[in-house]
Amino acid sequence: MRLGLILAVVLVAVGIRTLGGLGADRQAGSYVHDSFVMGTVLNIKVRGASRESARQAVGVVEAEAERLHVLFDPHDENSAISLLNRTAAGGGGTVPVGRDVARVLAAAIAVRNSSGRGFDPALGPLIDLWGFSDESPASEIPDTLQLARLTAELAAAGRIELSPDSATVLVPSGAGALDVGGIAKGYAVDRAIEILDSLGIENALVNLGGEIGVLGVGSNGRDWRVGVQHPRLAASHLGVVSQREGMFVATSGDYERFFILDGHRYHHILNPESGFPASGGAVMSTTVIASSCLLADAMATAAFVLGPAGGIRFLESQGAQGLIVYASDGDRENGEITYSATSGFLSIMQPELDGRPIY
Amino acid sequence: MARAEFQLPPLATATDWVMLGAVFLCSLSFYGFRMLEDRAEGGLVTVVQVGDERVAVLPARKDTVLVVSGKLGEVRIVQQAGELWLEDAPCRLKICERMGHIHRSGEVIVCAPNKVMVRRERVGGEREGTLDAISR
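The joint structure predicted for all components is written out below.
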């Protein structure tokens, strides 16, 4: 009876393992986990670690992402960003900040200054006016007088600055409300990679809403393969980046949050100078590879606003690699799609469409 | 003087062997089903996740309409002729519907406010050339 039982248990285990191929860790030596955090999906792939150590590491990353979401949510009155925004609205002042806020603001301010206002983290009021926040979907152009007045006020207001020791933030009176939700996701990817590395995970990919960082190598010991979204063909990619450790990839596009009115596309990437969605050069998307996901994200937005020529010059000046996809005839809806890239980008990305090389 | 005699109990009784055979056949049929499925469908499946829970896994080539309840309400998941898309999402921005139709392994459609996600995956490991992620 004992032998029968033992064999039965072994066979049942084999059967369950066979069926378990549809579970979270289908591939031998790999662990894949998806969860909803920061208003998007966090996808983590770990290779070459035990299931238990991968599961524990992913749990730590998820908790960190939840913490950062609370910290950077401008609509949560307890968040650090809310406190800064209330200070701006209440006459300004100096506000002590922690390491995370300091790191994000330092990167945001650096990209703002180096891009000539191609990127501005303090556009919260404009984004709300357009209705591109999660709470109120955009569908029409705001009152143009109100838009012009708000844009002028934001341009004239003093800029938020970080103290030299990064311990405090100087918030001028009337400074625009910070909205750093986008780049906070990039920072969360950076933190995720730091955490996985510190926990001894050697091979991993972290994808938070399309912003991606990696450790080690992917399947078969090769570079991780990351597709770049085609800006008009929703289920297609226009190239594959061979992503290595230390490279972070972020994309900004006009194809997710937008509305079309009278044949014109109004999207969520606003030009700080005009207050309108960035339209110079008919850019549809920008993909940037940088040394951190936080920087890649901010620079992708800046390059989008600066347009094909200015954007590439900016990325080259920052030592980043990037791709700017735009309509060569200015017609973003039906025009011919072309691209500009930094000098090194095409050695990292293989252009292809639906698995076939473009050229 | 009487000799003490004893006999070891049998390692397995007839009932054990019957049970063993049944379990073996069950395992074999599961494995065979998986092999047949892999051959017929290329091992490609659609995974439906709501929140942190996988609520359905179905062969990619099976034409079907699935209605699942997310955080905000119901959404229709349509699978037809190998393609997969979302309809009638209760979210406001409809980004998930704009993500269009997907068909390859590694592709995903997400309705973040509704916490619903559908993903194409290949059973038994990804093939050479499959994307690990898409930057968007």
